[in-house]
Amino acid sequence: MAATLSLSPLVLATPTSTNLVNQHEPRTKTMSKDSLPIATLKNCKTLDELKQLHCQVLKRGQNRDTSYVAKVISTCVEMGTFESLKYAQKAFNVFKNDSETSGTLFMYNFLIRGYSSAGLGEEAILLYLELVGSGLFPDKFTFPFVLSACAKSLACSEGAQVHGAIVKMGFEGDVFIANSLIHFYGECGEIDYGRKVFDEMSERNVVSWTSLICGCARRDKPKEAVDLFFHMVEEGVRPNSITMVCVISACAKLQDLELSERVCAYIDESEMKVNTLMVNALVDMYMKCGAVDTVKRFLDECVDRDLVLCNTVMSNYVRLGLAREALSVLDKMLLHGPRPDRVTMLSAISASAQLGDLLCGRWCHGYVLRIGLEGFIRNGDVEKAWGIFEEMPDKDLVSWNTVLGAYLQESMFEEAIELFRVMQREGITADRVTMVAVASACAYLGVLDVAKWIYTYIKKSEIHCDMQLETAFVDMFARCGDPQSAMQVFDKMEKRDVSAWTAAIEVTTMKGNGEQAVELFNKMLKQGVKPDAVVFVGVLTACSHGGLVEQGWQLFMSMKEVHGISPQIVHYGCMVDLLGRAGLLGEALDFIKSMPMEPNDVIWGSFLAACRTHKNVDMATYAAERITEMSPEKAGRMNQCCKSEAEHEGERGS
Questions:
Q1: What rounded mean pLDDT belongs to the chain?
Q2: Residue 324: partners with Cβ closer than 8 Å, 6 or more residues away
Q3: What would the mean pLDDT of 28-37 be, rounded to a whole number?
Q4: pTM over 0.90
Q5: String of b and e for 49-81 (b: at least 16 CB within 10 Å)?
Q6: What is the DSSP string of 231-286?
Q7: Which residues make Cβ contacts (< 8 Å) with residue 299, sequence separation at least 6?
Q8: What stretches of residues are PPR repeats (predicted)?
């Protein structure tokens, strides 16, 4: 990186000479009657509101008030946007120039944190240098932010020097700083140094273990990652979902089925709640271990299949040469959802190529063009593709994008992000095709910090954002658990097609705001955008989660009568879920019986769940019998569940 840390200021920072002034936010001074209270800054919801208030502060001569400036900076950083961060830096610079003094440690810490969270590692490190050079001393809150910045920007040499300062100032015993060091060394590939920090810790928490396990899993030490996991369990430390995703990924890399089964046994024995990321990792693990039958049984029993799960299964089928099975998953997605995306179609095209099915390949090509995707990776082995790429004397942007696409095709999302970082180090300027791929990879990883970093990179690099890329960002932020940023991107879009509106409606669904989803749908119609079958799935799902029965009925009826779209089984499933959640079990059952197609086990499974929620044992038994007729292997489990519920109701009645 451009800036290299100078050791000289750090050498002066000794524990005995350290006077940690201004560690915390300065206390408010006695104010005149014309002063604006600091509490008003907390009420600012947007950057424009804060700017207006800050202007009043400057006009009243409070620009040298440390408390006000500190609160302006912290409020800007908390907003978490690129623009608010720039304004925080501007306010900081104005304060230093006007007061002819350095900023406070509180200000520096917040700015370093903001830059680090936004992925601007170099700026964070330069601020740290400025802090030390100004005569202030970093504290235990400073170092985790600086180390995070070093990790994100792969500033390995600088991070090692920061480690030296930590030891010299006596902070190496702080568990949060030690955890940050382990994570930093893991990101830089220096696992041995991370292990040394870990071994010297007198106190370890789940983050300590998880940081080292994830570092080993990501840096070609999967066996060490699994060994650490079992050691962690023996020590009585309960892993979290992040730990489990990392150790499951390590098992996938080892392709050791016996070891994988041991990890799964722990999940069952500990009654750990399995989230979506763990489910997807487990499926990928079993596929990598060649346990295809296990995955098939799992999919048959899985009611809620999300896009990541389907794509993981498809990409692994293609990798194993099971092209027909891959296309079978695509068929089910088209019938029941979720909606295929770019990664789905990459696998579908590869499967078509394996079969030599030109007609299917042409259909996939047409589908890709319809949803606005301009490029795709043709079938091929990733390892061979990477080997060819490494031997190329001149690698242009198209070559980099091709390898990125191959990683996406194989569900190697972490590798895709890592490759993008390599592109940055090599000085390769990304384009919109690159960023669509990177945003898609980040969406599947669900890591918000990386999402913010990617979005900041776009703004900083002034890459043109077209409708496809902006839609990808809406989806990325939504999947990373930041619906507010997702909607901010959507609101700034100049042009929106039905895919963009669908992404926004899905964001409101995640927030549980059914009324807003319906409002967005109606706004889309007013703007002349023609709905498709997919957007109706989104808005009906929102109505279901929001309990909007009447609106849901109106939308469902309008599909055929107003828009000429014949409802598919997935739309009927949304209506069953809507009625069931609302407790209208009789109406739901009548609706199922009136369906123009045969209801599948997903429909009956949704109805069964509603019956259990509303404690209607008779209807639950009826639904279980229908599922049994379709899937005899589920008969024992369903009957046992219904029997247990009936006995429970009987005990309550007595």
A1: 84
A2: 351, 355
A3: 46
A4: no
A5: ebeebbeebeeeebbebbbbbbbbbbbbbebbb
A6: HHHHTTPPP-HHHHHHHHHHHHHHT-HHHHHHHHHHHHHTTPPP-HHHHHHHHHHH
A7: 283, 305, 313
A8: 104-138, 174-204, 205-239, 306-340, 396-430, 497-531
- Omega cis (within 30) before 338: yes
Place of tokens 């809150």: 141
Give the whole-angstrom CA distance, residue 208 versus residue 237: 10
Mention every residue, 6+ apart, whose C-beta is less than 8 A from residue 58: none
Quickly state the pLDDT bin for 27 (edges 50, 70, 90): very low
What is the rounded distance in angstroms from the CA atom of residue 445 to the CA atom of residue 388?
27
Whether residue 4 contacts residue 125, with contact meaning beta carbons closer than 8 Å, is answered with: no
Residue 104 contacts residue 66 (beta carbons within 8 Å):
yes
Instruction: Supply the pLDDT for residue 516.
Output: 92
Neighbour-count burial of 449, counting CB atoms closer than 10 A to its CB (0-12 exposed, 13-18 middle, 19+ buried): middle
Residue type, 481: G
DSSP three-state, residue 399: helix
Give the C-alpha distances (Å, rounded to integers) separating 436 from 343, 380, 400, 432, 447: 11, 21, 13, 6, 16
**Which residue in the block uniquely carries the two structure tokens 């006007």?**
98
Q: Say which amino acid occupies 233.
A: V
Task: Please give the Cα distance from 147 to 120 (Å, whole number).
Answer: 12
Tokens of 17: 């000479």
The mean per-residue pLDDT over the stretch 376-398 comes to 60
Q: What are the helix (H) ranges across 379-462?
A: 382-391, 397-409, 413-425, 432-445, 448-461
